[in-house]
C-alpha cells in the first residue's frame, strides 16, 4: 500500500462517517456511530493500525492526513449532538405546553363547621358591646361547676344536670376536689370573676357534656355560649336591651322577643328569652309547639351568693348572665331538625350549609 491509497481510504472513511452522523436520529444512535468510527476499536484506529505496510519514508506523513479528518469528525459529532438535544427539548416543551389563558382548576377549600361559624357570629355580635371571649377548661371541679354557682351537694337543682364524673384514683388525697366534665360553661364565670375586677364583660363559649340519651334534640356532647356582665348599676333593663339587640342581629330586625319567668340557682330573678318562631314566623307550627315562640336562652341577674363566691362585693356591684345553646341557635339559623347531624362527620351535610 502506498501513501496515495491510504489517503483515499481515509477520505472514504470520513465520507461514510459524516453520512452516518447526519443520519443519527437520537443521542443513542449518535453514541453508537461515535464508538464505531472514533472508539478504541473503531474504524479510524483500525485503519491507522495498518501504517506498517507503508514505505518508511511515508509513515511520518500519515498524522498530517489523519488528524484533520479526526477533528472534522469530532466537530460533526458534537454539532449533531447539540442539534439532537435541542430537538429533544423542543419536543418536550411542545408535549408539555400549557395554555395560561385557560381558567385554573377549582380549589377545594375547607370551611368552618356550622357550629363554629355560629359561635364566631355570636362572639362578633356581642363583641360590638364590649364583650371579650374567655376560654375555660372542659374538665372542672365539683366546686366550680356546682357549689360556687349556688348549687351545693344536697341542692335539688343538681337533678337538672346529668353529670359525667371522672374516675378518680383509688387513693384520692383527702380534700382533693372531685373532677367532672363540665355540664355547662357557667364555671367560666367564676374563673373570670376571681381573675379580674369589675367592670366585666365576657363570653365563655365551649363544649359541654351531660349523661343523656341521644335523640334528635338531645346530645351528651353539645356547645354553649355563656355571657356575663358585672358593673355598678347593672339592671334587667340592660339585659333585655342587650338580648333584643342580639336576637335582631342574628335572626332579623323584625323578629319579636319576650321574657318569661324561669329558674336557675345562680341567677335571681331568672328568665327565659324567646323569639318569634323562625319556622312559621309566629303563626304556630310543630317546631314551636304551635305557640309561635322559641326559647333560645336562659338568663337572669347573678345571684349575690355567686358574686360573693367569685370574690365580688354584691353590695356594690350587680351583674347579669345568660347562656345559650350554640347547637340550638345553629339549628334555627339553618333549619336543621336533628342535632345528631352536627357530629356525624357527613361531608354531604356540611358542604350544603
Describe it for me?
With 353 residues, the protein is α+β, with helices and mostly antiparallel strands. Helix content is 39%, strand content 19%. Helix 1 runs antiparallel to helix 2. 28% of the residues are buried. The protein has 11 helices and 10 strands. Strand 7 and strand 8 form a beta hairpin. It has 2 domains: 93 residues; 238 residues, BirA Bifunctional Protein, domain 2 (2-Layer Sandwich). The longest helix is centred in the N-terminal third of the chain and has 34 residues.
Structure described in brief:
The protein contains eleven helices and ten strands.
In terms of quaternary structure, the protein is: single chain
First and last CA, distance: 96 Å
Number of helices: 11
Query: What's the architecture of the largest domain, going by CATH?
Result: 2-Layer Sandwich
CATH superfamily of the largest domain: Bira Bifunctional Protein, Domain 2
CATH class membership of the largest domain:
Alpha Beta
- SSE-based structural type: alpha+beta
Order of strands across the main sheet = 1-5-6-10-9-8-7
Global morphology = rod-shaped
Largest sheet descriptor? 7 strands, mixed
Q: Mean of the pLDDT scores?
A: 86
Overall number of domains: 2
Question: In sequence order, what are the helices and strands, one letter per element?
Answer: HHHHHEEHEEHEEHEEEHEHH
Low-pLDDT regions: none
How many whole angstroms does the radius of gyration measure?
44 Å
Kindly state the percentage of residues in helix. 25-40%
